[in-house]
Specification:
single chain, 193 residues, mainly alpha
Length: 193
Amino acid sequence: MQRSQINNVVKCFNAIEILGVTFIIAIAFAFQFIFRELPCPLCLLQRLGLLGIAFGFLLNVRYHVRPAHYSLSLLSAVLTSFVALRQIALHITDPDGYGSAILGIHMYTWVFIFCIVAIIYIGLIMTITQQYEIEQDKKEIAEARGKKIRIFSHIAFIIFVLIIAANIISTLTECGLSECPDNPVSYILLSKV
């Protein structure tokens, strides 16, 4: 495989990973708005950590693929797995847990599983050394990326930005400018209106 083809495949996978993370956060929003299950502070931290994972992949899509970008995703996955593990430990004796379950497993457990898979995946994908070779000629880079890959990565970027904006608005509505309650029952900004 040529270097440009490897870069296209890696960037395509990075865009798919961004969409995967945004899908998980969209599911969390569905639970929040459809089932009226407000996220707790640990849930909000997990969302932020998932956005950090996707941001490292986004840097790979937008700029050259770098080990530092993968490191950002890797560190975000490790941090998020610790936050999810903390929430699992809090509810380990509670048979109901916090929030609804998907396929019998709560969202924070799914986030922990996702983070472990992401850590393993990033560790494996970082071993492809050809993806780090930088092509000097910008015209060659533009031709190597291909139009379809570029469009796909732009769509992933737009969806990611929309999820970030939705997360900011949702968190501000729920918590206002103060500390989020441990067990939220209403949106603070909406109850003041």
